[in-house]
Amino acid sequence: MAGMRLDLQFFAADEKTEKATPKKRQDTRKKGQVPKSQDVNTGFLLIMVFGTLFLLGGYMGGTMEGMYRVAFSEYIHRDLTEELTHSMFVEMTVEISKIIAPIMGVALIAGIASNLLQVGIMFTGEPLKMDLKKLDPIKGAKRIFSARALVELFKSLLKISFVGVITFSIIWVNKDQMMMMSQKSVQVALSFFGTITIVMGLASALALLLLSVLDYTYQKYDHEKNIRMSKKDIKDEHKNIEGDPQIKAKIKEKQRQMSASRMMSEVPDADVVITNPTHYAIAIKYDETKSSAPYVVAMGVDFLALKIKEVAKSNEVVTVENRPLARALYQHSEIDQPIDEQFYKAVAEVLAYVYQLEKKM
Length: 361
Known about the structure:
Layout: H1 2-14, H2 22-30, H3 38-73, H4 82-119, H5 137-144, H6 147-173, H7 175-180, H8 186-226, H9 231-242, H10 245-266, E1 272-275, E2 280-285, E3 295-301, H11 303-314, E4 318-321, H12 323-332, H13 344-360
Parallel strand pairs: 1-4
Antiparallel strand pairs: 1-2, 2-3
Helix pairs in contact: 3-4, 3-8, 6-8
């Protein structure tokens, strides 16, 4: 039973039930793993492109009409030479660029803007790295028959249905006018069918944009689910950030040893060591060039206090027993810092006694 409880605790600790930490989110973002919907890009791109066609359709049609007029009224009567071919190619390229450039520019801006809206500014080459795990046929089969694949299939069918219904409805509403275009001029027919095409494109783009809201919500939910962490993961992350407790303890112990060694080297220069007499030892020094008040050069309790007293004795530093003062100095003082103002009088009396004693000696 005890073993079973341990197994259950292990599985519970390893179950990914916790929200991702900020560090985990940052790490996944660096790898290019962010919630993103391609439908947002597609819908935004289509609505911008068809909007541009709606606004600049007259200008584009006029430019194309001018190209045909020049080609069939001027170029057709000229002799075909190398210079004429070159000039025709350059002029036609310029005219076509005038038509294509606005659409390409808007498409580029739409693509960048839709990505910025979803993921912000992000530069990473992690998705481009070679990963042999992606070639694993077993994992590939699991992805094909996964719940995510079914969701993507449902989304595709939904998009096709929406776009199909919208385009069919627009064609059905305008079917009578379409039939009458055979009696109209070419220019009127082209204008009508161009308008119908733009209306279908804008309506389909709006439908895709509405569907993309649902898709982005799902992508965000799925991303949050995939980056969930277990309690063990969170503990391991804290260990990595803050350092292993055992290593930290060893570092602190080393630091204490170095600090104690440095303190012991200062004791021979102290003016007095105040003790309580066995548990506490505080080495005091007064140097007007360093501080206007006496300051602590070393202090310790128990074993460290004993070491301070031994070093003081071997270097003929005066030791004075004052139990309440030693305990109070230890609690309210720091190494290499002046003593608190409340101890000025008591320490001054001790130093005066020490100076008188050294003067007699």
